[in-house]
Description:
The structure holds 2 protein chains of 2 kinds. Chain A is α+β, with helices and mostly antiparallel strands. In chain A, strands 1-2-8-3-7-6 form a 6-stranded mixed β-sheet, sandwiched between helices. Chain A has helices at residues 2-7, 53-60, 70-80, 104-116, 122-141, 143-155, 170-174, 178-188, 204-214, 265-277, 283-291, 322-338, 343-359, 364-376, 383-392, 396-406; strands spanning 11-14, 20-24, 32-39, 64-65, 68-69, 83-88, 93-100, 195-199, 237-242, 248-257, 295-304, 309-318, 413-418. In chain A, a hairpin with a 5-residue loop joins strand 1 and strand 2 (20-24). Chain A is globular and about 60 Å long. By secondary structure, chain B is α+β, with helices and mostly antiparallel strands. Chain B folds into 2 domains: 12-214, CATH 3.30.830.10; 237-432, CATH 3.30.830.10. Classes of the chains: A alpha+beta, B alpha+beta. The interface between A and B is large, with 80 and 79 residues.
Amino acid sequence: MSSADDSLRLEYADGPLGLRIARQPPPPGAVSFSATYLGPAGWAYDARGQEGVARITTQLLTSGAGARNRISLARFLDRAGGTLAAHCDPESAEVTVWGPATSVRPLLGVLADAVLRPRFEPADLERVRRQVYERQLRELAQPSSRADRELHAAIFPVGHPFRLTGMGDRKSVARLHSSDLAQFHARHFTGPGGLLVATTSLRLRSLLGLVERLFDELPSDPPPPLRVPPPVGQRPKDVRIDLPGHSQVEVRMGGPSIARSDPAYPAAYLADEVLGGATLLSRLFTRVRSKGGLAYHASSHLEAMKLGGYWGAEAGTGADRWRRVVPMLRQEVERIAGETIPAAELDLVRESRLGEVALALESTSDAHELAVDVAYNGLAADHWVTWPSVLRSLSPGEVRRAAEIALDRGRSATVVAGPLGGA
Amino acid sequence: MIRGAGARPKVESFRLANGLRVLLAPLEGSPTSSVWVWYQVGSKNEHPGITGASHWVEHMLFEGSPRYAKGAIDRAIIEVGGELNAFTDTDFTAYFSTVPRGHLSVPLDIESDRMTRALLTDAEVERERTVIHSEREGNENWPEFRVEEETYQLAFRVHPYRWDALGRKEDIERLTPAELRAYYQKFYGTRNALLVVSGGFEPRSTAAEIRRRFSKLPASGADVSVGHVEPAARGERRAELSGPGTTPYLQMAWRSPALDDPATPATMLIDTILGGESRLFSAGPGWGRAGEHPSARLCRALVEKGLAVRATSEWRPRVYPSLFTVQAQAARGVSLDRLETALGNVVERLARGGPTTVEMQDARTRIRRGAALAYEGASRTGFRLGYFSVLHSPEYEDKLFRQLLAVRAEEVRDRARELFRTESRVVVRYEPTGGSVDE
């Protein structure tokens, strides 16, 4: 990965008012830049009775900010050739600007406006509220969304942020006012706990100077502390949701897992890749699709975050086939933690994952995702440079032991959602 | 050499004696190389009874060839740290692999092996049948797919755009391995293929390697042109669907021109004004559309006013005349009748009054900006060059781009009047049964 070394090496600095800055150079030949602000503003911070406030606040950051309303902001972005997108997860909210490398300054200004001066206009809130209502319905009616939702409800206790999707319910979303959003915004889009990541050819000093000028109004109070109940120990659960009229049954299996800071993470990551993360090479894909011919998609994922994590294995299959797929998923999950992975299989998956990092140098947006991951998790500036040696140092035994903890079938749930009685 | 407009890289092109067209787009300093093989074979080349054959062949080309046993293609690319995939459309099928620089020989060897010699054994075809079924079932879970499929079935009675590239469920059940092999042997070959190599590589030695690997393939591939001409519609066609879902969903469609039709630039501007962007020139870090455009007419009239949670338009580039569609998902409590009236009013208004000066300026800006950053990275470059080439020619992008920027507001208005005629309209309405929604 020698060519990747320079492009994937971050530089860190302390910015204004406690804001942390990370800068990564763009990939060779790139003509675009990207920057992201991340704040401690995920739905874990939703107050009781205000569920949905984090998601809606985040979505509205791109709907008009500073002197620009929604229309004029969109027009400005069109003229600059840029895009502005916002995303919220249980822990954090992020706003990302992307555009031509020649427009770094005006587009960073747009990002600052979105983070510091969102307008939260009542009409915009009403529009987003209507969209959230429809998504709430989708979570119930759509087999894939429903299966995800039920899985998280089965494996995390009440009050745990990973139990929820952040969408709230009709009542909690209905009672939100612009003032609630403004209040949430003021407390959570802050300097302390905040992070700005840029993938740009600007030198760190220049970037820092720009950020100091543009983000000098960030609130300097730290975000409120978060109390997260631990995932409770439990026996495996089975949940069945019959959704007649659909064609495909969605199968999900999963459970609580480790945080990204856990020393076992690299080994657990590899275990998950062997199980189903490295899709085409993985055991789930091979057994369920390539050999079994039972499903179009079969994969797994490990979400290791700051507050903890969860893992999941999944497949979409026919109403007449899901009963054969469920035991396959269970057996493969048990096997990954119960048997040592053959060295050749582990090597193949390991090298493929390392290649994927190099492929991220195709474009600024791909490389930027890696930078955000490193910076958000507080990893070393040379994380992606040392990552190959970290992964290559892991033995099959270490990977199996990590799987025992991180992909624990003993605390898992299985959800099947779709036309269970036939299409 | 083809001179590219905007950010398009310089491209070297040549054709082998067996008919294979080759485009080379070296990108200085690129850490990756991308190999794309585009076949001008898609669901347009199928007929009732074997619909879905192109898509099925797409799957089978990963399931074994003389030098690569089942699973070996995936393994060979992944072993060198690459990624690979394929997709099927009405007009083409595309296979791509992107690998770290220096590993170009791996995908070139694979593509030369499976271009004419994929095995398609009975056992593997049968095994893949349920996988194909499953892919279709996954799509059927979405009302949008059901509505789209119904729209094209209503709009086309003769032309093969009538069916989706996934194929009909009944044909997936009955298509035999022998029929699939015959389809592959008839159409997949050098005459119908385009090889695009983009990214980090040395052009001269790569060209030599391509000649060495592909020149020995026989000249093959039957004529892929479609002779069926869809007769003009003599009245509006409608369908009412129902099933699981959230809120009512509506799609309207009208006959629209093929990519090379002189009416295409104005049609693309209509798409940009109604939906916010054109499929071929949209700005953004991803490969598809960037998302909601608040200044687009459909968004302003439907989403901002509380009638819909999503509303957009779509014109897709096609080799033959196809459809221009508008679609909207109702907000809770809004009926299909109300949504249809509102949607109809938006297109009528454009046909009556044409676009404003500001809309024309905004549309041109978006198109110009969309073109500017479209070629970042080896994979995107390979995709874009191949896409234009397989639908028309690599040079066509420049011509279309110039035409788009030259279209006047009156031309857009006149085109909208021609396009949005009720007698050629298709309306498909989806009413959710709501039986599965228990708030």
